[in-house]
């Protein structure tokens, strides 16, 4: 069982002075998963990731990477070889070129000769920076620097990626590029733990989600389970006729709840508990009742709405 | 060929390759070479100008004599020898061996000081820059060892200084050979300078690694301190003052001291010869001791570097190493203390031993103050330890506590500190029993009293470090300074008000042998009061620890309760 887990923590706790940043966290991430960590600022996400990356020593608790215990007081080069860590503040050596920077880190991770050059070319291709390989790091844009940081994280072919707020401050195009890189890495079988405030990105990338509040891991489940338990369907309708008539007609259906008229868009929004067949029946009944329907959308509450609904917004 | 070599170097040590690539730019190399050549020219010209010029026609015709340190005549009527003309020329005879010897000494002093001071500055400022940028944390996360990464820093950061110094070495070697120094002695001197520099640089690296929180200016501070240490060490090394024999230890920290034994002219017969465990030192025995001393410091400094690099929160030294280091340091101190002294006049065996004993206790005061800092875990670690111990006590799991206090890294350091004191006291007691000192009982009381006082200091530091004060380190330092100065003040006024003198030995056993004031000597009364202070401070710090542990548990509990009180969405 533990062999299938890329990460396992047991009662992991980190205390700074009077503040408990991470509190008794039992986290389990299966190999090959993309695990999204969400929570308000100060909930303990960064501290948790730093402990997993060996950048911070736990106050109490244990961390297992691929079933092997991680110890801060032991120099464990083979475990460090497994991990690729991209912090939210990613310091770079401004005096180096892109190629020299990656070459330096490749050497730090014992990559030699042709294998090193090949790997450098591969990661530059993955992060789409091949054309910038001879440029000084100072000349790169923020998005490019972020991608260079990711290339540095990937250079030694880690099997576990820890990404802390990797898309913060990026424009939509750079974010889209970053998402496509993560998908490529996921397809390559890498286990990825990613913390982000951009929940729509996580929704697109992640297979599981963990929610942190006050240092606790209050929720940890596959995304599908989370939707199944906490996400409700929603209907969005508009009519060429009287909205009140539409509302009356909808209220007759027992599967429709919380009907609201959105006065600014002249639409009706309601929660819906039925399946797709029952939704088709509802649409048919509305048309039969002579409602001049303009649009009929059936959607589901997204991750952001689930997060707000759960209400875990306290910082530690 | 060159790129293959660089590639291999980079595979072995990527940090070194990075430092070399960043620093060995043509412009920087040209500046280093130019500075080195200009400095050599200045030193050489300065030495050349000290020679007598050619004799003027007036000097030749009127037989006027001039004197110069490098002339070959007699020095009967002046401090320098008379200058003699080479027959049928207007040139004076020059003692070239002496001139080359002086040139070699000048070059050795200037090059050694420049290497140590500038090199240390560059090392610390480079490491601080990496820490400020946060790039050092990335290196910590890599699978490379601390020795590999910090070793790369050590060789790479001052590479231009190494280059400039290396360019001056041929001139130094040439001067040494012309002065008649043998190649084995020269190799001995360079190896001594090499290992001492390596040790000083390693200490500088350690200082850079642990001093980042102090703010700016560490590099200036450390290079200034190193300059001061080297000047003091050279002074002590050359004069080996008998009154403070244990301080002769400092002399071996300067490779320049080796010149005293390498060049017989510099070993002034009016100064006392230096002994180690009563063996008279020559160059080979001195350099053996200096190299062993440097090696000892090198090993412990790198142990601390490895610990601090991988985990910046652990104490500098682990407890097993501390016991061994105390034993070694006591051996070295006693080795330099045990001189063969020609007694006469004021210098009776008793006087000398008392004076030497006072120096040893003072030196130990400094060493043990450093040791208490090096052994102390940080506030958070003590708090975590206390909480963990309380949990264990609740489960009636007492076993291992003593082991933890003696060998653990995160437990309170007082037990380990007292063991170190016991080791030092054992060594000193042995010496006093075997020494010619007449006041043996008083000396043994003094050892006990000094150790008690060091224990009081350690407890006081622990109590302050466990408070919630901001800048606890500063408060602890202030408390120690006050406890050190206050008794001196009390002693000073005790001549007027003898009542104060009664309390002096409690806090100041250091001066007792010097002063000879009967009331200031350690006695049962002062020792009992010191024990009382140790008990009170230990109880206080134990309570603080318990309170810290409890408050940590309460924080966890409060935070859990907050979670429970929240309405559940499910």
Give an account of the 3D structure.
The complex is a heterodimer of chains A (316) and B (570). Chain A has 11 helices and 15 strands. By secondary structure, chain A is of the alpha/beta class. Chain A starts with a strand and ends in a 6-residue tail after the last helix. In chain A, 39% of the residues are buried. In chain A, strands 7-8-9-4-10-11 form a 6-stranded mixed beta sheet, with helices on both faces. In chain A, helix 3 (98-108) packs across helix 4 (113-126). Helix content of chain A is 36%, strand content 29%. Chain B is mainly alpha-helical and 570 residues long. In chain B, 72% of the residues lie in helices and 1% in strands. Chain B has 23 helices and 2 strands. A two-stranded antiparallel sheet of chain B has the order 1-2. The longest helix of chain B is centred in the C-terminal third of the chain and has 42 residues, at 524-565. In chain B, 39% of the residues are buried. Classes of the chains: A alpha/beta (316), B mainly alpha (570).
Question: How would you sum up this structure in a few lines?
Answer:
The complex is a heterodimer of chains A (316) and B (570). Chain A has 316 residues and is of the alpha/beta class.
Looking at how many chains there are and whether they match, the oligomeric state comes to heterodimer
- Computed over alpha carbons, the radius of gyration of chain B is 29 Å
Described by strand count, sense and barrel closure, the largest sheet of chain A is: 6 strands, mixed
What is the N-to-C order of secondary-structure elements of chain B (H for helix, E for strand)? HHHHHHHHHHHHEEHHHHHHHHHHH
> Number of helical segments of chain A?
11
Total number of beta strands of chain B = 2
The major sheet of chain B is characterized as: 2 strands, antiparallel
> Order of strands side by side in the largest beta sheet of chain B?
1-2
Order of helices and strands of chain A: EEEEHEEHEHHHEHEHEEHEHEEHEH
